[in-house]
Amino acid sequence: MYLAYHREKMILTEVKNFINGEFVSTESTLDSFEPSTGDVWATIPNSDKNDVELAVEAAQNAFLGWSSTSRQERSNILSKAADILERRLDEFAEWESRDQGKPVRLAKLIDIPRAVYNLRFFASGILHDINSSTILEKANAINYTIKQPVGVAGLISPWNLPLYLLTFKLAPALVTGNTVVAKPSELTSVTAFKFCEVLNEAGLPPGVVNMVFGYGHKAGEALVSHPCVPLISFTGGTVTAERVRLASVKYCKKLSLELGGKNAAVVFKDANLTKCISSTVRSSFLNQGEICLCTSRIFVHRQIFQQFIESFVQETRNLKVGNPYDDNCIIGALISKEHLNKVKSFVTLAEKEGASILCGDKSDGLNLSDDKKNGYFMRPTVITDVADDSRLMTEEIFGPVVCVVPFDDEEEIIYRVNSVKYGLCASVWSQDVSTIHRMAQRLQVGTVWANCWLIRDLNVPFGGIKESGIGREGLKDSIHFYTEEKTVCLQL
Ligand code: NAD
């Protein structure tokens, strides 16, 4: 009785699938938890193969109409969606925070504004994209190219930056004339669901975007292995990506994979330490360390190591952890109990291996209000005295845990940074442009930030190498991925 009453009070949102412009319930649902309280706050569809089938069918039916619209028409609808989302920024930020655990302030500053920007950026970018042509004088012929949409695009997104990453796929897929079936993470479905209202209001024709919610191994896998979905854009873990590759290989699908990282920051002795320390504290712990681009290994030149670590630990201790509604809180809750336990298990491993835990979990307590006592919080944790071959230094932790270790020279540090299986990004801190240039050339990553972190221009390619992914996203790269380029040769 109490439970039923409790659930009724807590469940605010009933997420439904969005198929052919309409919201559709499923027989079976899943509970979705609010990370900062540990309570159920939404139910989401437990979609299966049949739901995916309906969504794909709707997307197929809408394809001819949508792909025949002009770029300008598609751009207008996306721009309108951006305006509506911007007008509703505060409520979307609050939903993102409740669903994901991040501070509301962060969602207002980064997640939702970036989702708005994704829509605007591709809505305008597509208008400036031109095709190539050549003239063959001897044969008296002209070659020109046409970029055509691929068909029904399957978009699979993770829980860490839910609407931000979903719209980074949705916007280029739509402006290039594809129709879409999206499967957001089962842990964070709410803003994607609410965004469907925005798409309807913006005048997107029914069936152009369809969303199915639920488990990855069920709804996600059904989408990836569907023979009528020729393109899959996936952002998530490296292990899941293997299943995605295997399920799609039979159909020779176009694949874009944005995967995990074990990103390093390298701090040379001539670095501007004030700027470097505040930036690396941010790069280690922003969004609870749950960003694929977060720094996880910091290598500091031995001559400045002590000075660095003292200030770094001091600044980390100042980060307030707790209530996501509190504007002074920098660190919210981790996504789930299971993930919290996984992240904490790395701190236990550090203890077992005899590493030094300088601050955070196991050394500092949390001071949470009663309503947050069951939330999935942990303190940002700094670890040192750890070997390069420890799992702490090789595996993606994806939480507020960073390892800081010394190095002696450039040759050595290039080898150590490159010695992991991942290759997403790195940051280099030095005032010497030659050092930066040499490092940038030799680090095996998709993005190098020098004396900064997370400054992003959507015009430039983004993606990982090694086990951090396949393909690039960004204006030109995304247009390339979401289209098939055809050559026409016309003899005059
Ligand atoms: P995940 O791999 O568990 O899930 C990602 C998505 O895939 C979810 O929607 C999930 O439901 C779905 N999925 C799971 N199994 C599937 C299957 N068999 N077939 C099809 N879909 C399936 O990842 P996550 O835990 O949601 O996200 C964290 C991971 O994402 C981290 O490794 C992080 O580094 C990575 N990530 C990478 C980038 C990037 O741009 N490189 C950005 C954000 C997150």
Shape: globular
The overall pLDDT average reads: 96
Query: What is the CATH C-level name of the largest domain?
Result: Alpha Beta
Say how many strands there are: 23
Physical arrangement of strands within the biggest beta sheet: 15-16-17-14-13-19-20
GO molecular function: oxidoreductase activity, acting on the aldehyde or oxo group of donors, NAD or NADP as acceptor
Keywords: NAD, Oxidoreductase
Protein name: Aldehyde dehydrogenase domain-containing protein
Family: Belongs to the aldehyde dehydrogenase family.
Structural commentary:
The strands form six sheets. Strands 15-16-17-14-13-19-20 form a seven-stranded mixed beta sheet, sandwiched between helices. It has a six-stranded mixed beta sheet with strand order 10-9-8-11-12-22, with helices on both faces. The chain folds into two domains: 13-259 and 468-491, Aldehyde Dehydrogenase, Chain A, domain 1 (3-Layer(aba) Sandwich), CATH 3.40.605.10; 263-457, Aldehyde Dehydrogenase, Chain A, domain 2 (3-Layer(aba) Sandwich). Helix 2 (49-68) crosses helix 8 (216-224), helix 3 (71-87) packs antiparallel against helix 5 and helix 5 packs parallel to helix 6 (162-175). It is an alpha/beta fold and 492 residues long. Helix 13 (391-394) links the parallel strand 16 (381-384) and strand 17 (401-407). Mean pLDDT is 96; it is low at 1-9. The chain has helices at 2-10, 49-68, 71-87, 89-100, 104-125, 162-175, 190-201, 216-224, 238-248, 273-285, 302-317, 337-352, 391-394, 410-417, 433-442, 475-481; strands spanning 13-14, 17-19, 22-24, 29-34, 39-45, 133-136, 141-149, 152-156, 179-183, 209-211, 231-235, 254-258, 263-267, 295-301, 356-359, 381-384, 401-407, 422-423, 425-429, 447-450, 465-466, 469-470, 483-491. The protein starts with a helix and ends with a strand. It binds nicotinamide-adenine-dinucleotide. Residues 156-160, 165, 183-186, 216-217, 220-221, 224, 235-237, 240, 243-244, 258-261, 292, 396, 398, 424, 464, 469 line the site of nicotinamide-adenine-dinucleotide (NAD). Nicotinamide-adenine-dinucleotide binds at residues 156-160, 165, 183-186, 216-217, 220-221, 224, 235-237, 240, 243-244, 258-261, 292, 396, 398, 424, 464, 469. The active site is at 258. GO terms for molecular function: oxidoreductase activity, acting on the aldehyde or oxo group of donors, NAD or NADP as acceptor.
